[in-house]
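Troubleshooting entry. Yesterday's outputs looked truncated, so today I'm pasting the complete records for two proteins to confirm everything comes through intact. If either block looks cut off, that's the bug. Protein one:
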Amino acid sequence: MRIGIDLGGTKIEVIALADGGDTLLRKRILTPQGDYTATLQAIHDLIRSVEAELKSQGTVGIGIPGAESLANGLIKNANSTCLIGRPLRADLQSLLHREIRLANDANCFALSEAIDGSGQGAEIVFGVILGTGVGGGIVVNGRILNGANAIAGEWGHNPLPLPVSHDLPLPACYCGRHGCIEAYLSGPALSRDHFQQTGLTLSPEAIDQAASAGNGDCEATLRRYENRLGRALASVINLIDPQVIVLGGGLSHLQRLYRNLPECCGPHVFSDVFNTQFRPPQHGDSSGVRGAAWLWN
């Protein structure tokens, strides 16, 4: 049995998978806010409750909103700031008395979709998170590509390629830089762009609904978004040339992206053909936690 944990800023989700990938159990609890010790205890208690209910001990993989430093094993780049600088894996191993595998949540998403989801059978899968933030993970032949600095796939903190007039001035990013892809392509960034152009505050879902009903301003906002997303993903395609890009996060529900992205990416891809496929996640909101379980594949 494989147990996966998705440690989010607002929720902690657990899943138990049978060896073949069937879901045995899935539940979630609220994440203790800003309390590292309470978060450790919540994960411990959740795993123990799953094993007691299923009367079996499992391997444990955990997806986190950050990465483990290769230099000292401490958590870095986490938007759940109480994790930063903490030896999360070592502390959990001490609590649970077993080896823990840990990975970035976007890597877990990509792994899930590559193993038995929308990217199954592809040599290279790029998993994209378009939500509150922008992240990514790379899976090659069924294995996560971590990289020399444990940041492979972190395209969200590259600068947006080829900025044009409506991309200026370069927006500030929480990382301290300006013009990051995340500052243009997250859900809040889409709403902010619409507000800057129209003075109206709308959610991405409301913008999409209004555009479908013929609202020209909302259509223009989504076209700007798609143009930026196309340029940003083209740079990824030129580097790793994935067969499949799976979109995750809240904005992956915008069905128009799957129709329009090939046209937006194509002119910026250094090739005479464009074969990369854009697909929605087969496992939806379960992909991250499933991928954490598959860390023991």
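Protein two, checking that the full record survives here as well:
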Amino acid sequence: MTESPLDRIRFVLSRTAHPGNIGSAARAIRTMGLRRLSLVAPQAFPHPEATSLAAGATDVLDGAQVESNLPDAIADCRLVLGATARRRGVVIEEFDPRSAARRVLDAAAAGQEVALLFGNERSGLDNDEIKYCHAAITIPADPTYSSLNLSQAVQVIAWELRMAWLAGVEIDADAEAGIDERPSSAQMDQFFAHLARTLDAIDFHKGRSPERILWRLRRLFLRASPDPRELRALHGILADATRMAELARQASR
């Protein structure tokens, strides 16, 4: 059977506390023609409550991939969008669900693996999870009562994907040229680890917060989305900077 772009879209639930929400989320995505579910460190799964609330979407539960950490769950993804409320102090590009659906389908149609990330029911996505996201999806709920549970948020975004898919969203060939060259999440993680080591090696921080600086640089490079050749060049620059810093240290001894 020919693979559909929808087969490249996964819903990733991180640190789910209640197994019933896993089942409800499975039902929500299955009714919209989507099937891929990934779970990161769920508190309880498999679980009878998940099966019960899936209401027959057992194929989604049976095919769900379970990982102990988020990087492993999204390692092969070229686009990661996180569903989250607007957060003060966190600079990240934001889409409403309809705009996000178009971007997701364009990426999936171009051959990319895409992750839609949802956080814990009580606390949502934390900053350590948001840092892996290229952008956020924010549901424009009534600000006087914006309480959506996990499966409702999943349903809203799955619905928009379904409607965009049925409408036959056209891919902008010019805008998407080379999109399959976007590095994977794992490749970007390797670059960010190299960047952090280099900043330490050249004593860049000088008393400033390493975490805050790296966060800002993560946002910069995720927006830039360097292709593999550009990423190799960046690794080379970091390696040369580290080498020169070591030579300077040796000369000053």
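Both blocks look complete. Sanity check on protein two: The longest strand covers residues 9-14.
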